[in-house]
UniProtKB/TrEMBL annotation, chain B:
This is ABC transporter permease. It is a multi-pass membrane protein. InterPro entries: BP-dependent_transpt_permease (IPR050366), MetI-like (IPR000515), MetI-like_sf (IPR035906). The chain crosses the membrane at residues 21-42, 85-113, 249-271. Pfam families: BPD_transp_1. Keywords: Cell membrane, Membrane, Transmembrane, Transmembrane helix, Transport. The lineage of its organism: Bacteria, Bacillati, Actinomycetota, Actinomycetes, Micromonosporales. Residues 81-271 form the ABC transmembrane type-1 domain.
Length: 330, 288, 532
C-alpha cells in the first residue's frame, strides 16, 4: 500500500523537478551569454594565437564577420537556442570542431573520473566515518579527523604532484599521466584503468574530508539518538545498533550532501585532469573560457548543471525510498 | 607552585580538544602575526630580483633559500600569505554580505520572493564553483578584484541558506511573536531580535569560508587565472615552485605550501571547535 | 578528541617524502614500455588547432603530413619538394612558375595535380575562409594552372622572398568538394602527400601518424610517429623522466635536469626566436632617446641568459638572428650591464637623480610600466629582470601581467615584452614591425616607431632580388634600429629538447618562434631511427 502511494509521489516529484529545471537551465544559459557579452576578449585574436602578431586587422575583422560574433547579443542567443532545439550545439571556436563532438569525445572521461572517485569516496567515507564514530575519541577517530583536516587544507593539485612524484617517478608503479600508454593504438580498458588509478585516488582523497567528517559526526550524533539509545537499552549488541539503527539514521542526510557536493567534485576534477593531462572536459573548459568560446562554455556549463540536477533528483528519490517518514509531495 | 600548576595543565590536556586548540591558536597566531608584521620586522624588498643568486638552498642568509629569480623564499612566502589571507578574508566577507542580504530578504519577506531567491540559490548551486569562478575571472581579466569577485560570487550560497533558515525558524518563536504583537516594526524586529541570533552563525560560516577561499585563489593561480603572476601570493609561489621541485629546488614550492597548510589547518581546527558546539542541523548547512 | 600536533606531523611527513623524491635521482622504471619499437614518441606543449595548412597548420613546412612546393633543408635553404625544381621568377619579379614533380600520390591514392595547388592558395585568399595566413600572402594576386603539371603565381608587386612563402602544405581539392573549409572534417582527418599518413588525433592527448610507405622521397626509416600533447611543462618533464617519450621539448631549467642522467641527451637548438622590450614613442619617458639608450646598455643580457634561460640562449641586439646571413655583426654591444655608460647617458640628457634615487627631468620621474602576457612565465621573468636592472640606474619600472586583450589597447603608451622571429627571411616579421606605414596598427608597430632610413632600407630589401643589395639594405636597417632603439632586444632563445640516447638521425636546424608538431627538432623525424 505504501509502496504504491510512494511511487505516485515520485512521479509528482519528477514532474515538479523538471518544471524547475527548465527555467534554471534557461537562466543559466542567459547568464552565461550576458557575462560573455561583457567580456572584452576578442575571439578572433584568440583564434589567431601567435599568428595575431602577423595578421592584419582586416583579416581579423573578416574572420569575426564569418563567425557572426559581432551580431547583437539577442540575435546570437536566439540563433544558439534555435540550433540547440534542433540538436545542434554550435561550433566551438576554440577547438575548431562541433561542440557536440567535443562533448562526445571528452564528457565520458570526466564522468568516468568523477563517478569512480565518487564511488570510492562514498564507500571509504562510510567505512572510515562509522568506525571513527563507533570509537569516538579513540586514537583512530583522532587520527582520522586530524588527517581529514590536514587534507582539507592541501590544494588538490599539490596532492596530485606529490602522488606523481612518489608513485610515478620515485617508485615507478603507475603512469604519471595520460589516458593510455602513449604508443597504444587502441583504448584498452586495463590500460585505461591503470592510468586512472592515481587521478581517481587523488580526486577521492581530496574530496574525502567533507564526507568522512560528515559521516563521523552524523553517526556519532545518531548513536546518541533516542531510538538508538533505546535499542542499546534493550541489550542489542553494539554492531547491530551501529549498522541497524545509527548508520541508517545518519546516512539519510548524507545522501543530500552527495548531491550538493557534486559541483565541488567537478571543480576538483578540472584540476586533477590538468595535473594528469587527461583529455576530459576540464582542460577544454579553461581553454574555452580564455578564448571566450560561448557555444562550448554554455554547453559544458549546461551539461554539468543537467548532471547535478539529475543527481539531486536521484538523491531525493533515494532519500524517500530509504525513509518512509519523508513525504515526497512535500 | 609547580605542584599546583601541573595538575591544571594535565586537566587542560585531558579536556577534549584543548591541546589541538592550543596548538592551533599558537600556530595561527604565529603565522598570521609574522605575515602581518613582515613589512615592519623585515623591511626588505621581497620582489628584489638577483639573477646571480638563483635557486640557492636554505642557509643562514636565506632561511628558506631563493627562487628562480634569486628572491628570498621565506620573506616572499610571508608576503604571499598576507596576500592570500587578505584575498580569502575579503572574499569571504563579500560572500557573507551577499549571502546575508539574500538570506535576510528571503527569510523575512517570505512568499514568492523567498521562492524566487531560493531558485537563484539552487541555480548557482547547480553550477560547479570552480568552473563558474574560472569563467568570471576570464571575463573580468585576471586581477585581485576579479579573483575576489569570482570567489565571493560562487560562495554566498551557504550563508544565504543559513540566514534564511534561521530567520524562518525564529519567526515562529514566542519572543518574536511577542515583539510583533507588542507593535514593533518589521525592521525593529529584524535588527533587535533576529539579528543577534543570526549573527554568530553568520560569523562562523564566514570564518569557515576563509580557508576555502584561500584554496580557491591557489587553484585559480594554478590554472594561470589567478592574481598577476609576479605578485607574491601562495598560489603563484607554489605554481612557480613546481618547476623547481623537479630540478631539486624543493624549498620554492614546499615552504609556501607548508605555510598555507599550517595557517588554513589552524584556522580549520579552530572553526571546527566552534562548529562542534552548535547543533547538528546548522552543522549540516555549514558544509560548503 | 584532542587533536594534538598530529596534523602538523602529517604535513611534515608529506613534505619529507617530497624532499626525498626531489633529491633522489635514481633512474625510474619505464612505465611506457617499449611497445612498438619502430614508433617514435615525441612530446610538445603546443597543440595545433587544426591540421589543415590553409588554416595555419605547418605554414613554413616540416608539417610531417604535408609537403609544400618547396621545403627547407638542414640549413633552412630552400629545396624543391612537390615542385620538380625551385620555381622560376620572371624578370619583373611578378610571375612565379612552378613545375610539379611527377607521380606524387596523396595518402588516399589519388594523384597530385596543379589544380590541388591552385585550390590550396585560392582557399587562403578566399575571404570566406577563416585563414590568418592571408596577411602573409597579401602580395599574391592570383594562381592559375595552365596545365596539370604547372602552377603560375601572379603577384601584385615584386616580392623578393616570395619562394619562401611556397613551403605551405598542399591539400587535395576533392577532399573539400561541397564542404565549408572552415568546418570540413578534413581539418581533423587530413590527407596529404607527406612522409606520414594520418591515423588518429585525440585533442589534448595525442596525434598518431603512420609511415607513408609510398612517400615520393623514400619511405620513412621508422614505422610511425606519435606526437603527445602535454601543455604543462612539469607534467611533460615528469613523463619524460618516466620514460614515456623518445623526445620532448622542455623548458631549459627542466631540461638541464636530464644532462646528467644516463640514457638521455639534451639538445639546445639555436632559433630566430627573440624577446625584447618594445618602448612606445607615445610615452614621454620611453619616447626620450636618452632613456631608451640608457636602458639598452643597463640591461644585463648575460645574466638573463644564465639566470632566466638557464644558459639556453644568447644576448640579442637586433631582430635578425646571428645565424642569418643577413645579420650585421657591428650592432652587438656588451653582453653584461654597463651601468656607467647608462648613467652617463642619463646625466648628459638632464635626467638627474631625485631624493628617492629615481631620476627626474623637467619635473617628470623616470618611471614607466612594462606589460607582459600573464600566462607567459618567461616574459614575466624577463620583465622582472629588466625592472631590477633599470632600478640600478635610477629608472622605475612597474611590471604588469595582463591578458592580450587588456594589453592591446595600452601598447601605444606602455612598454611591452614582445617576442617573435623567423629565420627564413629578414623581411618576414621586421617589415611590418618597424615600417612607419604600420605605425600604431595592432601588433605590427604598436610603439609607432618612425624612421625614413629604416623605411627605405626595409623597402629596398623587399624590392631587390639581388642578394648583395638585400644584404646592404638589411645592414642599414639593423644599424638604424641600433641607433634609434625602438626596442631593447634582450635575448635569442634556444629551444631545448631532451632525447633518449637510443634515438639517432637527429639534425637540429635553426627554428622559428612557432614550433609544435611542425618545425620542431623532429622536422626530419622520417629519417630518425631508434635502437632497441
Amino acid at each position: 500500500m505504501t509502496g504504491r502511494r510512494r511511487l505516485a509521489g515520485a512521479g509528482t516529484v519528477v514532474r515538479r523537478r523538471l518544471l524547475v529545471a527548465v527555467p534554471v537551465l534557461a537562466a543559466t544559459s542567459m547568464g552565461m551569454f550576458a557575462l560573455g557579452a561583457a567580456s572584452p576578449i576578442d575571439p578572433a585574436q584568440q583564434y589567431a594565437g601567435a599568428a595575431a602578431f602577423t595578421t592584419s586587422e582586416e583579416n581579423l575583422a573578416q574572420i569575426r564577420a564569418n563567425w557572426g560574433v559581432d551580431d547583437p547579443l539577442p540575435v546570437q542567443y536566439a540563433r544558439w537556442v534555435g540550433n540547440l532545439l534542433r540538436g545542434d550545439l554550435g561550433w566551438s571556436t576554440s577547438r575548431h570542431e562541433p561542440v557536440t563532438s567535443v562533448l562526445a569525445s571528452r564528457a565520458g572521461w570526466t564522468l568516468l573520473l568523477v563517478g569512480t572517485a565518487l564511488a570510492l569516496v562514498l564507500v571509504a567515507s562510510v567505512l572510515l566515518g562509522t568506525l571513527a564514530a563507533y570509537r569516538r575519541g579513540g586514537w583512530f577517530d583522532r587520527a582520522l579527523r586530524a588527517v581529514a583536516y590536514a587534507v582539507q587544507s592541501m590544494p588538490v593539485f599539490w596532492i596530485g604532484l606529490a602522488a606523481i612524484a612518489v608513485f610515478a617517478l620515485s617508485l615507478g608503479w603507475l603512469p604519471a599521466g595520460g589516458l593510455t600508454d602513449i604508443t597504444a593504438t587502441s583504448t584498452d580498458p586495463a590500460d585505461v584503468a591503470r592510468h586512472l588509478v592515481l587521478p581517481v585516488t587523488v580526486l577521492a582523497i581530496s574530496q574525502a574530508p567533507w564526507f568522512v567528517l560528515f559521516v563521523r559526526d552524523a553517526v556519532a550524533e545518531s548513536l546518541r539518538d533516542d531510538h538508538v539509545l533505546a535499542a542499546r537499552a534493550r541489550g542489542l549488541p553494539g554492531r547491530v545498533v551501529l549498522f541497524g539503527h545509527a548508520l541508517r539514521t545518519a546516512l539519510l542526510p548524507f545522501l543530500t550532501l552527495v548531491g550538493t557536493h557534486l559541483p565541488e567534485l567537478v571543480g576538483g576534477a578540472v584540476l586533477v585532469e590538468t595535473v594528469f593531462s587527461l583529455p576530459g572536459l576540464g582542460a577544454v573548459t579553461v581553454e574555452a573560457a580564455l578564448g571566450a568560446d560561448f557555444p562550448l562554455l554554455a554547453a559544458t556549463t549546461l551539461a554539468t548543471a543537467v548532471v547535478v540536477l539529475t543527481a539531486n533528483l536521484l538523491t531525493d528519490l533515494a532519500y524517500a525510498a530509504a525513509d518512509p517518514r519523508v513525504r515526497l509531495d512535500d | 607552585m609547580t605542584d599546583l600548576a601541573l595538575p591544571a595543565r594535565v586537566r587542560r590536556l585531558r579536556r577534549p580538544g584543548s591541546a589541538g586548540t592550543t596548538v592551533a591558536v599558537v600556530v595561527l597566531a604565529g603565522v598570521v602575526a609574522a605575515a602581518l608584521l613582515a613589512p615592519v620586522l623585515w623591511p626588505l624588498d621581497q620582489s628584489a630580483v638577483d639573477l646571480s643568486r638563483t635557486r640557492l638552498a636554505p642557509s643562514a642568509d636565506n632561511l628558506a633559500g631563493t627562487d628562480d629569480l634569486g628572491r628570498d623564499v621565506a620573506l616572499r612566502s610571508l608576503y604571499g600569505l598576507r596576500v592570500s589571507l587578505l584575498v580569502g578574508a575579503v572574499a569571504a566577507l563579500v560572500a557573507a554580505v551577499i549571502g546575508g542580504l539574500v538570506g535576510a530578504l528571503a527569510g523575512s519577506v517570505g512568499g514568492w520572493v523567498d521562492r524566487a531567491l531560493m531558485r537563484v540559490v539552487d541555480t548557482v548551486a547547480a553550477l560547479p564553483h570552480l568552473l563558474l569562478g574560472i569563467f568570471i575571472v576570464a571575463m573580468l581579466r585576471p586581477s585581485l578584484g576579479a579573483v575576489i569577485a569570482s570567489i565571493a560570487l560562487t560562495h554566498w550560497l551557504s550563508t544565504a541558506r543559513i540566514v534564511r533558515s534561521e530567520l524562518l525558524s525564529l519567526r515562529n518563536r514566542p519572543f518574536v511573536d511577542a515583539a510583533i504583537s507588542g507593535g514593533a516594526s518589521r525592521a525593529r524586529v529584524l535588527t533587535r531580535h533576529l539579528l543577534p541570533h543570526v549573527l554568530p552563525r553568520l560569523a562562523l560560516a564566514t570564518t569557515l569560508m576563509v580557508p576555502h577561499a584561500v584554496w580557491h585563489e591557489t587553484a585559480l593561480s594554478f590554472l594561470g587565472l589567478g592574481l598577476p603572476p609576479h605578485l607574491a601570493s601562495i598560489g603563484n609561489m607554489i605554481n612557480d615552485g613546481q618547476r623547481s621541485l623537479l630540478t631539486g629546488a624543493w624549498w620554492a614550492s614546499i615552504v609556501p605550501g607548508l605555510l598555507l597548510v599550517a595557517a588554513t589547518l589552524a584556522l580549520a581546527v579552530l572553526t571546527g571547535r566552534w562548529r562542534d558546539r552548535l547543533d547538528p542541523r546548522v552543522r549540516a548547512e555549514l558544509q560548503l | 578528541m584532542a587533536i594534538r600536533p598530529k596534523p602538523v606531523r602529517v604535513a611534515a611527513v608529506l613534505a619529507a617524502a617530497l624532499l626525498v623524491v626531489a633529491g633522489c635521482s635514481s633512474p625510474t622504471a619505464s612505465t611506457g614500455g617499449p611497445g612498438n619499437s619502430g614508433t617514435l614518441v615525441v612530446a610538445t606543449a603546443g597543440e595545433p588547432d587544426t591540421l589543415n595548412p590553409v588554416l595555419n597548420y605547418g605554414v613554413d613546412g616540416a608539417s610531417l603530413i604535408f609537403d609544400g612546393l618547396v621545403a627547407r633543408d638542414a640549413r633552412n635553404d630552400l629545396v624543391p619538394a612537390l615542385a620538380r625544381e625551385l620555381p622560376t621568377v620572371s624578370a619583373d619579379g611578378k610571375t612565379v612558375t612552378a613545375k610539379l614533380r611527377e607521380g606524387v600520390l596523396f595518402h588516399d591514392g589519388s594523384p597530385l595535380t596543379a589544380q590541388d595547388v591552385v585550390f590550396t592558395y585560392q582557399a587562403v585568399l578566399d575571404p570566406a575562409v577563416d585563414s590568418t595566413l592571408r596577411s602573409d600572402l597579401d602580395m599574391l594576386a592570383s594562381v592559375a594552372a595552365p596545365d596539370p603539371a604547372t602552377v603560375v603565381f601572379t603577384l601584385k608587386y615584386a616580392y623578393a622572398p616570395f619562394l619562401q612563402r611556397l613551403a605551405l602544405g598542399i591539400v587535395p581539392a576533392k577532399a573539400f568538394a561541397g564542404q565549408d573549409i572552415n568546418k570540413a572534417t578534413f581539418n581533423r582527418k587530413p590527407v596529404g602527400t607527406g612522409p606520414y599518413r594520418f591515423t588518429s588525433w585525440t585533442p589534448g592527448d595525442r596525434l598518431v601518424l603512420a609511415a607513408n610507405e609510398t612517400y615520393w622521397d623514400g619511405k620513412p626509416a621508422n614505422s610511425g610517429v606519435v606526437v603527445a600533447f602535454v601543455a604543462d611543462d612539469n607534467v611533460r618533464a615528469q613523463r619524460m623522466r618516466a620514460g614515456e617519450f623518445d623526445a620532448a621539448e622542455l623548458a631549459p631549467k627542466l631540461a638541464s635536469g636530464f644532462e646528467s642522467r644516463d640514457g638521455y641527451r639534451v639538445h639546445k637548438v639555436p632559433t630566430a626566436d627573440y624577446r625584447g622590450v618594445m618602448l612606445p614613442m607615445g610615452n614621454p619617458v620611453t619616447g626620450d632617446p636618452a632613456i631608451r639608450k640608457a636602458l639598452n646598455v643597463a640591461v644585463d643580457r648575460q645574466a638573463m641568459v644564465t639566470g632566466v634561460l638557464g644558459g639556453a640562449g644568447e644576448p640579442a641586439f637586433g631582430p635578425v638572428p646571428p645565424t642569418s646571413e643577413y645579420a650585421e655583426p657591428t650592432i652587438a654591444g656588451k653582453p653584461g650591464a654597463d651601468v656607467a655608460a647608462a648613467t652617463a647617458e642619463l646625466d648628459a640628457a638632464g635626467w638627474k637623480p631625485g631624493p628617492d634615487g629615481i631620476r627626474v627631468k623637467d619635473g617628470r620621474q623616470a618611471a614607466f610600466t612594462i606589460l607582459y602576457p600573464a600566462t607567459d612565465s618567461l616574459r614575466k621573468e624577463l620583465a622582472l629582470a629588466v625592472t631590477a636592472d633599470a632600478k640600478k640606474v635610477g629608472i622605475t619600472v612597474t611590471p604588469e601581467g595582463l591578458t592580450w586583450d587588456a594589453i592591446t589597447p595600452r601598447m601605444k603608451r606602455d612598454a611591452l615584452i614582445m617576442g617573435y622571429g623567423t629565420p627564413y627571411d629578414p623581411d618576414f616579421v621586421s617589415y611590418k614591425l618597424f615600417s612607419s606605414a604600420f605605425a600604431g596598427q595592432g601588433f605590427f608597430n604598436p610603439g609607432s616607431y618612425r624612421s625614413a632610413v629604416t623605411d627605405a632600407a626595409l623597402q629596398a630589401g623587399r624590392d631587390n632580388a639581388d642578394p648583395a643589395a638585400r644584404k646592404a639594405a638589411y645592414a642599414t636597417f639593423q644599424k638604424q634600429l641600433a641607433a634609434d632603439v625602438p626596442w631593447v632586444f634582450l635575448t635569442y632563445l634556444q629551444h631545448t629538447y631532451v632525447l633518449k640516447d637510443a634515438v639517432t638521425g637527429v639534425t637540429p636546424r635553426v627554428e622559428p618562434h612557432e614550433h609544435d608538431v611542425a618545425n620542431s627538432i623532429w622536422w626530419n623525424v622520417h629519417t630518425w631511427t631508434k635502437e632497441s
